[in-house]
Amino acid sequence: MASRPRGPGHRTDPDVKPFSSALFASSVACAIAGLPGPAQAADAGAASMSLHGDLMTPAESETTTVQGALGNGSGNGHEPKVIYLRYADGSETHTSNYDACNTGKVPKFECTFAPTLVECQRQIQTYLDAWYADFNVIFTLTRPTSGKYYTEVVSSGGGAWCKVDDKVAGVAPFLCNDLAGGVAYTFQGGRNARETAVIIAQEQAHLVGLEHTNNAHDIMFPTISSDTMGFVDGDSPVSGDRCDRETQNSYGMMKKALGEWPGGPKPSAFGCMEDTQIPSVRFLSPSNGDKKGHAFAVTVDVHDDCDVKKVAISVMPQGLTAVAMAAPYEWDLTGINGAQTITVTATDGSGRTGSATLEVTAPETREELGPNESDGAGGCSVASGAFSAAGLVPSLAMFLLFSGKNRRSRLRHVPGALTR
Questions:
Q1: How confident is the model at residue 27 (pLDDT cuts 50, 70, 90)?
Q2: Every domain of the chain and the residues it spans
Q3: What does the alpha-carbon distance between residue 216 and residue 223 come to, in Å, rounded to a whole number?
Q4: Which runs of consecutive H residues, i.e. helices, occur in 246-328?
Q5: What pLDDT score was predicted for residue 410?
Q6: Residue 270's pLDDT is what?
Q7: Is residue 319 within 8 Å of residue 343, measured between CB atoms?
Q8: Which residues, other chains included, contact 271 with Cβ-Cβ below 8 Å and sequence gap of 6+?
Q9: Verdict on whether the full-model pTM lies above 0.85
Q10: Among candidate residues 356, 376, 359, 284, the one with its CA nearest the CA of residue 316
Q11: Does 286 sit behind a cis peptide bond, omega within 30 degrees of 0 on the bond before it?
């Protein structure tokens, strides 16, 4: 398969010649190697830096966490994973599970390519956002208060404090599989934005289980290279294999481990400093054109680069409307009758709106129900219409329940949300 870098500055397929790789047991820790000859440094100073020897076998830990540190809270199984970037201030130590350097004080991140820390972070983040755009993961500069997340500590001045060679640009715990968390380190951050982003991305990818490759276009190339273009979507020879892999599709492995971004804007790592995009609304169920029974669920996925203020649903011409002020965005409808247009509109904190619309058809009579549909008589009502014996005419006593994923424990009324 031809190699296709994913990220900014797409180039033609590289001509990379594989060389034989030595096999290492996964228990080998931090074998330091020098710079290979063919590598082209990102700048003159990069010649003293290497990403060889950046894999460490983590010690066992009793620390456990729960999946879902951040995300949109939709509870629909599509929540993104989280990468917490900690730009060191020179004061903190780390003793987390799967921590490559769980002793010593982390040196301060020193930036030399921009006048302020925030501007340095923004330039670095531009590269990371491009390389991770297709993956179901978001970056944050604020430590999550709960749940499991990947951590990357970004510092300057080398890794002597972590007891590794100063030529090593970063380090990560590594077990050939996704650790679903853990702490990796960038030791040589701050010399330029692209170089720092490459180190961050490679060490984070080691947490996911990726090895080094011999492809100079790949993030996983073990030397800082001006040819690096992103995670390569193609089979690249593995360098220094520890996991019985002859080749590695870095892009494919990242997408498999992190999932595919479902679409729409991603939240900014810097929080809501500049609200520039409209909210994205996507129906998870039902599908456009579906024929449903009188009772069915509506579930949507909503994203915004800042915060979602509210999400409104309308069912017309049935005449039902409701507003949800927080995720999950899921409604159970009953008493639905005939052809209906369902519109969901999300509004962000700046007043920008985004919407999605679909058409569904419910039967006019019970006889019109399909073989796989139910009229919902025995189910859980959310938008409910009482039907008379003479026909399926909704009464005026209609109500709405707003339910989460676990309907038994999270079913609740939204007073006054349903109107006609």
A1: very low
A2: 1-271, 280-413
A3: 8
A4: 250-258
A5: 39
A6: 82
A7: no
A8: 141, 142, 306
A9: no
A10: 359
A11: yes
